[in-house]
Specification:
The structure holds two protein chains of two kinds.
Chain A (H helix, E strand, L loop, with lengths): L2 E5 L2 E4 L5 E8 L5 E7 L5 E9 L2 E4 L6 E6 L2 E6 L8 E8 L7 E2 L3 E5 L1
Chain B lengths: L3 E3 L2 E5 L4 E7 L6 E7 L5 E8 L4 E4 L2 E6 L4 E6 L8 E8 L7 E3 L3 E6 L1
Parallel strand pairs in B: 2-11
Antiparallel strand pairs in B: 1-3, 3-8, 4-5, 4-9, 6-7, 7-8, 9-10, 9-11
The chains are: A mainly beta, B mainly beta.
Chain lengths: ~110, ~110
């Protein structure tokens, strides 16, 4: 069966520090991969999605970037965090041409 | 444009039925989804309905789709305290993009 893991689960970082959130999927090949953000009191915002290695689309301009160095690995990064980057970040995957998306457990980021 | 709307809060007594409503704008969506997010956790796919269906029932869950009005609802029968969570409605973006557009989520609180 397929599983998705993301880490760390919680993170407290000072403003201006770098960020790296990692996500891996097991049990499937060539998945679509996604990073979503859920800000406090708001819905889910799609940040990045990827249909293959090194193929990444950014949905909104922001202080973040994403990379996919391997088929089942998706990394969310920032060189310098802002206070507004605080939120709950969710990695997700889906099978190509399927709209059904499966989510990881999420990572809480607090920028102080 | 793409927009999915939900009311923010719903409070029900244990044992009653809950009805969570959602409106969407993209009439080309082929699938519509309900996800559940328990406190501090990722999203769990509850159920989905294909756009050519009016209703889908799965144990205590009933999904109703009014395609003419672009209205989707989730009914939870015999609501339990364990059903307390945030419920997200999502519509599938046009085929080929493999993205979901999420609503803001409805926080369901079940009291004894």
């Amino acid at each position: 069966s397929q599983t998705i893991h993301q880490w760390p689960a919680t993170l407290v970082q000072p403003v201006g520090s770098p960020l790296s959130l990692e996500c891996t999927v097991e049990g499937t090949s060539n998945p679509n991969l996604y990073w979503y953000r859920q800000a406090a009191g708001r819905g889910l915002q799609l940040l990045f999605y990827s249909i293959g290695i090194d193929q990444i689309s950014s949905e909104v301009p922001q202080n973040l970037s994403a990379s996919r160095p391997q088929d089942r690995q998706f990394i969310l990064s920032s060189k310098k965090l802002l206070l507004s980057d605080s939120g709950f970040y969710l990695c997700a995957w889906s099978v190509i041409d399927s709209n059904t998306i499966y989510f990881g457990e999420g990572s809480w980021l607090t920028v102080v | 444009g793409e927009d999915v709307e939900q009311s923010l809060f719903l409070s029900v007594r244990e044992g009653d039925s809950s009805v969570i409503n959602c409106t969407y704008t993209d009439s080309s969506s082929t699938y519509l989804y309900w996800y559940k997010q328990e406190p501090g956790a990722g999203l769990q796919l509850l159920t989905y309905i294909f756009s050519n269906m009016d209703m889908k029932q799965d144990q205590r869950l009933t999904v109703l789709l009014n395609k003419k009005d672009k209205h989707l609802s989730l009914r939870i029968a015999d609501t339990q305290t364990g059903d307390s969570a945030i419920y997200f409605c999502a519509e599938g973006a046009p085929r080929g993009t493999d993205k979901l557009i999420f609503g803001t989520g409805t926080r369901l609180q079940v009291f004894p």
